[in-house]
């Protein structure tokens, strides 16, 4: 095998989890793509290589059921049957009906409701001091996506817990406790969605689960699609808001007049989703290496989003950066289906927050979730006024 650049970056070390960006900068200076023995795959660091990997149809998301098969079936079922873990033509078959019903919801029509929810949540906080993750960043997208799908808001806390248990499986080397929790969450989550889907088949309602049961998707595919939307529909949004807000408050930055530009910079500056894997279906040259058939390559979105070849002063948070060609929503066929909803929610929640609390400040040290792939804050203490 010809020699290839290698990297020994430890994606699970406390140092890298706390602040991966100086480590990414060092790696990017040395190579666009490098072999990472610890995970047995290539890592792509530069914006060009990350974009090329995501655009290349020979580098796919190829789902492999996790083992032991019978124990992990509840988890596998939710992944095997959804768009994000499949490639065309299967991906197209699974994405098209969901995209159709999702578009039918007309994201813009939800805007007043999102603003109202933001106001309701802010009206209940103690402005002198509150955890903005628990009381604002988290409940807002959970309530919006639950309402959209037609899941009663009484299940909001369950949705959050199930989602958290499932996404912990995406981190390197999950412990057996995490595997058990993910299996349990998958069973309970699918159970609730199946129950609601059965009800909607009998008595249709004005919601997305009703729309989904009316598509050509099978019953398992409807369940997997609904769980995907419910999870993806809030998980990253919470962390983009938390990461972006902390970056701003730490630097005394408030949103620009054009809040949409600030939202894009929140998405770029401290990526909520750091790593996605692809597998080569034939040899592919990218960033100076050849990924052989069957080998894996992971894109590091946070590294691409700080690449000085694309972004002027990449480590500076500019609330009006324009243009801002970040890859926080991915690139290519898997481009985030929920990007318009996520952008609208972030716009409304940031606008409402700073309109009501222009003096918002950190009142303590924010806590980190402590995970690499899903990068976020668990608690962010803030306050406003004297
Ligand atoms: C700011 C928040 C969000 C971020 C940063 C984000 C990011 C991403 C990224 C990077 C991907 C591509 C994964 C890959 O290439 O392998 C993706 C896919 C996806 N996202 Fe999002 N997302 C966000 C919010 C949402 C919301 C609100 C929804 C839905 C309600 C959603 C639904 C999806 C779906 C269904 C896919 C799979 C698309 C496919 O495979 O074709 N996301 N998202």
List keywords for this structure.
386 residues; alpha+beta; Cytochrome p450; six-stranded mixed β-sheet; three-stranded antiparallel β-sheet; binds protoporphyrin IX containing FE
Question: Mind explaining what this structure looks like?
Answer:
There is one protein chain. The protein is of the alpha+beta class and 386 residues long. The protein has one domain (6-383): Cytochrome P450 (Cytochrome p450, Orthogonal Bundle), CATH 1.10.630.10. It is built from 16 helices and 13 strands. The protein has helices spanning 14-18, 21-30, 47-55, 69-80, 90-104, 107-123, 132-137, 139-149, 156-167, 176-202, 208-213, 219-232, 235-250, 259-269, 301-304, 339-356; strands at 6-7, 33-36, 41-44, 59-60, 130-131, 275-280, 284-286, 289-291, 296-300, 361-362, 367-368, 377-379, 381-383. The strands form 4 sheets. It has a 6-stranded mixed beta sheet. A 3-stranded antiparallel beta sheet has the order 5-13-10. A two-stranded antiparallel ribbon has the order 7-8. Strand 2 and strand 3 form a beta hairpin. Helix 6 (107-123) packs parallel to helix 16, helix 9 packs across helix 10 (176-202) and helix 10 packs across helix 12. The longest helix has 27 residues, at 176-202. The chain is globular, with a radius of gyration of 21 Å. It binds protoporphyrin IX containing FE. Residues 54, 61, 83-84, 95, 145, 228-229, 232-233, 236-237, 240, 272-273, 276, 328-330, 334, 336-338, 341-342 line the site of protoporphyrin IX containing FE. Protoporphyrin IX containing FE binds at residues 54, 61, 83-84, 95, 145, 228-229, 232-233, 236-237, 240, 272-273, 276, 328-330, 334, 336-338, 341-342.
């Amino acid at each position: 095998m010809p020699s290839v650049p290698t990297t020994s970056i430890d994606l699970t070390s406390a140092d890298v989890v706390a602040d991966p960006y100086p480590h990414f900068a060092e790696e990017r200076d040395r190579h666009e793509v490098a072999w990472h023995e610890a995970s047995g795959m290539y890592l792509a660091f530069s914006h060009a290589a990350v974009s090329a990997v995501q655009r290349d149809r020979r580098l796919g998301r190829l789902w492999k059921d996790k083992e032991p098969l019978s124990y992990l079936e509840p988890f596998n079922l939710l992944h095997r049957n959804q768009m994000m873990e499949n490639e065309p033509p299967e991906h197209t078959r699974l994405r098209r009906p969901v995209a159709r019903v999702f578009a039918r919801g007309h994201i813009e029509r939800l805007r007043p409701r999102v603003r109202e929810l933001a106001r309701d949540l802010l009206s209940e906080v103690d402005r002198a001091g509150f955890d903005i993750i628990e009381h604002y960043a988290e409940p807002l997208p959970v309530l919006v996506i639950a309402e959209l799908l037609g899941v009663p808001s009484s299940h909001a806390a369950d949705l959050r817990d199930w989602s958290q248990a499932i996404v912990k499986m995406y981190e390197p080397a999950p412990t057996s406790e995490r595997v058990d929790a993910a299996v349990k969450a998958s069973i309970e989550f699918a159970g609730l969605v199946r129950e609601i889907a059965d009800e909607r088949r009998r008595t249709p309602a004005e919601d997305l689960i009703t729309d989904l049961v009316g598509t050509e998707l099978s019953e398992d595919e409807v369940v997997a699609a609904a769980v995907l939307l419910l999870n993806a529909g809030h998980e990253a949004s919470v962390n983009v808001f938390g990461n972006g807000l902390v970056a701003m408050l730490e630097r005394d930055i408030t949103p620009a007049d054009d809040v949409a530009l600030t939202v894009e910079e929140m998405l770029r500056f401290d990526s909520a989703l750091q790593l996605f894997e692809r597998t080569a279906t034939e040899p592919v040259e990218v960033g100076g290496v050849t990924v052989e058939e069957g080998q894996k390559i992971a894109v590091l979105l946070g590294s691409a989003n700080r690449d000085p070849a694309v972004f002027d002063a990449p480590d500076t948070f500019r609330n009006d950066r324009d243009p801002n060609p970040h890859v926080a929503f991915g690139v290519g066929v898997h481009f985030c289906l929920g990007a318009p909803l996520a952008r609208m929610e972030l716009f409304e929640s940031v606008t409402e927050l700073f309109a009501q609390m222009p003096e918002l400040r950190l009142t303590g040290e924010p806590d980190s979730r402590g995970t690499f792939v899903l990068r976020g804050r668990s608690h962010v203490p803030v306050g406003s006024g004297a």
